[in-house]
Amino acid sequence: MTFDLKSHLAAQAGRIETALTSLLKETERDGEISRPERLINAMRHGALNGGKRLRPVLVMDAAGLFGRADDGVVQAGCALELIHCYSLVHDDLPAMDDDDLRRGQPTVHKAYDDATAILAGDALLTLAFDVITDEAVHPEAGIRLRLCRELARASGIGGMAGGQMLDLESEHRDRSEAEIRHLQSMKTGALLRYACRAGAILGDASDADVERLTRFGEIIGLAFQLADDLLDVEASPEAMGKATGKDAEAGKATLVGLMGIDRTRAELQALLEEAHDLMAPYGSKAAALNALADYVVTRSN
Amino acid sequence: MTFDLKSHLAAQAGRIETALTSLLKETERDGEISRPERLINAMRHGALNGGKRLRPVLVMDAAGLFGRADDGVVQAGCALELIHCYSLVHDDLPAMDDDDLRRGQPTVHKAYDDATAILAGDALLTLAFDVITDEAVHPEAGIRLRLCRELARASGIGGMAGGQMLDLESEHRDRSEAEIRHLQSMKTGALLRYACRAGAILGDASDADVERLTRFGEIIGLAFQLADDLLDVEASPEAMGKATGKDAEAGKATLVGLMGIDRTRAELQALLEEAHDLMAPYGSKAAALNALADYVVTRSN
User: Fold this and answer.
1) Known CDD domains for this protein (chains A, B) (predicted)?
2) How many helices, marked H, and strands, marked E, lie in chain A?
3) Is the pLDDT of residue B245 over 90?
């Protein structure tokens, strides 16, 4: 029996989509004064755009390994996805990567303007820390606080935002393989690591299981980045729904550039095997996470 | 005996400065991978710049009313100040207010570049939600969560960020007095309201006292904005350390513009009286908050 990843992803992403849509309603939540129309529309443009929802699906599937599948897990996934979406809105700005298209649609600053995109990103980021404190996320306040704090550390200067800074500094500058691995562990690795780790914490997993899922998340992060670099070299803009070849154009060193395509493919295969080994103790309960690892390595967009 | 506000402000702001400096060290915190040098320097530039620290001082003095003066209150104040500082870094960007000077110094995007300023703001915002979860803030996890969530709602689309959006939309557009009051309650009011309210919550104040301090914070917000509008009309750029007359130049309607200087001054006086009335039950313990209310109304920069 093979696992039907496509149906699984559609179902999990559907739950995320429903929850995000509800979080991004026009009407204000308790304690909010109002939700200005232009800003909530820009936030919706940035967050409800048919993304694959990989990060929240990882949260849900990691929690599922430990028996949790309720809507509180979806809320935690949404918090993480809001962080991811804000980072895309800001990364696309002219002052940053200057991208006009994202998943085949105009980026937020193209559909609105730069100021609105800056504010929409800020507000999506802020909303994440509202959502992660939701009572449904976990009955224990201490666990919700831990998830909140770890989310901040994975997203901020010591994680994603710091990695973005290092990446911008990489333009037209030589980077060693170690430097690139370091910046990627921050820029893309930290959130994917958090996704799997948070899922285990949500499921009240043992410390050993939390560490196991943390390592699984690190592998997903490494594999995701290597696969992304390969796609940037090999795929067409049409398949990706955004510009490709951007790294080479920006003069950014990549692991694929330093290691070559064959060594990159070999490392991806080794990562995939380690991922499967890590999931072995969970047997068939890990079918979704195993299939996601395969997907991250073999995806074509 | 008159209250020595100048010494008081210097002492309270000094505690905030020390704590912020510690939060913005070059070395990473637990769970952070590294703190890239350029980004932490830009964050320090945006946050350690001799600000008056009005918001955190309000947190500390409101908590002081209920007997709390420990470093946990300073941490909570820092979280709020990090939000305020991020908003200034982003507001100064060319795509927003396009300001070159802030407190007489180059703004972050002038000292670094636009991309770094965007990331520095993002990282300051994110750090705020790490800091507010600090165990020292309050022994009860549930209270820390409440403070975290209320901070998110005061700062995000339903508060400060939303108000900033409405303010940008006000350029070259007529606004009624009610519309301006609404946007100001979001843009500047929400954080000042939060400051006083959070202080009461930190001090385990009764619900009635929390509501009293919340109203006090609303008055501070209204008075702060009216005084700011008056300064924008009347003060010199030298006294303010930044450009003045910007509202008129941007074609933004202000309350002073609609109400005239005399009616504005009269409203300020009435607000001040209400503030003092609210503090009356606390007697001499409210000396600092009473003096702060006076200061907000009479400040010259």
Assistant:
1) Trans_IPPS_HT
2) 15, 2
3) no
Distance CA A25, CA A118 (A): 20
In the stretch 41-70 of chain B, residues with CB closer than 8 A to chain A read 43
**ipTM passes above 0.90:** yes
**Quick check: A245 and A233 in contact, CB under 8 A?**
yes
H-run or E-run covering A102: strand A101-102
Contact B32 A133 (CB under 8 A): no
Instruction: Give, to the nearest 10 degrees, the angle between helix A141-155 and helix B141-155.
Output: 50
DSSP for A228-264, written as a single string: HHHHHHHS-HHHHTS--SHHHHTTB--HHHHHHHHHH
Cα–Cα distance for residue pair A185/B28, rounded to 1 Å: 15
Total beta-carbon pairs less than 8 A apart between chain A and chain B: 204
pLDDT digit string, tens, across residues B134-179: 999 999 999 999 999 999 999 999 999 999 999 999 887 889 999 9
What's the one-letter identity of residue B200?
A
Distance from CA of A93 to the nearest CA of B (A): 9
Note whether B5 contacts A: Cβ–Cβ < 8 A: no
3-state secondary structure of B102: strand
pLDDT at B236: 61
- Short-list A110, A71, A68, A69, CA closest to A93: A110
CATH number, position B124: 1.10.600.10
Closest partner residue to A130 (CB to CB) among B29, B118, B149 is B149
Residues B181-225 pLDDT 10s: 999 999 999 999 999 999 999 999 999 999 999 999 999 999 999
A217: which 2 tokens? 């998340």
pLDDT (tens digit, 9 = 90+) per residue, B273-298?
999 999 999 999 999 999 999 999 98
Q: How far is CA B171 from the centre of its chain?
A: 23
Q: Which residues, in sequence order, are bridge partners of residue A173?
A: A252
What's the domain count of chain B?
A: 1
Task: Identify the helix (H) or strand (E) that includes residue B260.
Answer: helix B255-279
Of the candidates B33, B224, B47, B235, the residue with the CA atom closest to the CA atom of residue A221: B33
Q: Which residue has the higher pLDDT, B89 or A244?
A: B89
